[in-house]
Amino acid sequence: MAPTKKVLIIMSDASSFPLYNTGSDGKTISQPSGYFLMELAKPLQGLLDAGYTPTFASPLGKEPTPDPLSVSLAAFAGNYFEKQRELSLVEQMKRENGFSRPRRFSEITDEELKSYDGVFIPGGHAPLSDLGDNAELGRILGYFHREKKPTAAICHGPWAFLSTKYAGDKEFAYKGYKLTSWSDAEEKFMETVAFRGEVDKVESALREEGADMVEGVGTALGSITVDREVVSAANPMGADALGKKFIEMMGA
């Protein structure tokens, strides 16, 4: 029998994220969110087509919720069939791969981690709520980092990299890495047109920890960044290229 090809997909349990400084009184509210459908579905379809079996994991093992913005027809530029394809892929994962009941991070032993070829963190604003300071996630990502196993993250997914400061030697594992995430400029645009409040900035947070952030017109339009074992992208436009490169890196 051929060895099984396995990939770990890191999800958030959150269905909202903190939105600061809202309204006339400047209070913090919970803004509905979740995973960004396209950023999960496009790489995931590629992984399945390439013969990989996904295992979903989250801090507490709750069913992941999609970001409402990401399941609107506008997110698909009116392409109803593409939207239905991606929604049915998630339904398939619920039936076949335990998507409704992800593994808790704490249940995934260091021994089990050896069986995975790579790790993937999709975006959406949900990671801002519960992935950045999770010590168990820091342990998991630290393993892939030390073993130089392919690590893919898109949009707000790279926020999860901050968790490496809470595990092991308490050092940010990706100092000096070229990384791309949802940019401060993109977030500021969202703050103005959609949220009417302030959001934690992924690009700034990673840069402050010593990452070499690659952002600009190219990444905004879907170009990806590769440095050592990590491939990262800024937004849904980079989802296809990210998935392809991640699969290529795992097969190398």
TrEMBL record:
Q: Which GO terms describe its cellular component?
A: cytoplasm
Q: Which InterPro entries match?
A: Class_I_gatase-like (IPR029062), DJ-1/PfpI (IPR002818), Prot/Nucl_acid_deglycase (IPR050325)
Q: List its EC numbers.
A: 4.2.1.130
Where is each DJ-1/PfpI domain found?
A: 109-248
Which reaction is recorded as catalysed by this protein?
methylglyoxal + H2O = (R)-lactate + H(+)
Picking any one GO biological process from the record gives: methylglyoxal catabolic process to D-lactate via S-lactoyl-glutathione
Q: Which Pfam families match?
A: DJ-1_PfpI
Q: Name one GO molecular function term.
A: glyoxalase III activity
The protein depicted here goes by the name D-lactate dehydratase
Species of origin: Pseudopithomyces chartarum
- Please spell out the taxonomic lineage of the organism that makes this protein: Eukaryota, Fungi, Dikarya, Ascomycota, Pezizomycotina
